[in-house]
Amino acid sequence: MNHLLDHIAQQLSTHFRKSVQIKFKQQVFGGDINQTFHLQTNIGSLFLKLNNGNLKDMFEKEFAGLQLLNQTKTVKIPQPILYSSFESKIFLITEFIKKENPQKDSWKTFAHQLAALHKHSNDQFGFSTHNYIGSLHQQNNFCKTWSEFYATHRIMPLIQRAFNQDKCSKQDVQLAEKLCSRFEILFPQEHPALIHGDLWSGNFMCTENGQPVIYDPAVYYGNREMDIAMSILFGGFDKSFYDHYNEAFLLQPQWEERVKLCQLYPLLVHLIVFGKHYYSSVIDIIKQY
To answer: What pTM does this model have?
Structure first.
């Protein structure tokens, strides 16, 4: 670890064009993909994400996603500083932000900021590059419609992968195909929105003055209901957040009825990554719609 920290200090010194020394490190727990550390340096606190390097471009994609979110000047993100590799490890360095509880106005602020982010649009659904949701590769080939994109780059690749891993049946794949054929009817027409892509409470925090912060993005231009549905999936967001969001950027009628449909993708991700105890949730949604 000491050799790695020496290498990181050299990289930081080159980046900032001044000598950077790492005074101490403290491991921060919470994620299940990477090791994470708070680094105290002579230029302030920094955040280190460390991975064994099996997914060599993962932090490159995350860095680009953070940069894009930052460029929108909507929601605060930890400032990305650099990503690189050392021996068999890959690492990402960002600004360190101390996590605090939301304050009274934090949910309204975040709702309006997220709405502003979602107003950043594109001609097509998708993204200029593929990236990751957690440790899973995420396809982002551009499509003209959300129904085509959600079917061909989200649901069908993952249900097929689940089948290949013996986590669902051939009949389940056929049911998913039938569901995908109905997306054009189930989803209303809307312009592509720049979305965080993995907006659960574990990727949200507030600063000590209550300023909302989001991180660990899986960005693409998609249906903004994906972010809303993901925020509901595992809880942790105050009910007022959804009312404030609707004030800022009214969701399409019957959006609540499509929440589980939008949750199908992250639940498929969990089925593949974490195992078959997510199977019933996936199949219940497929059968429901």
So the answer is: 0.95
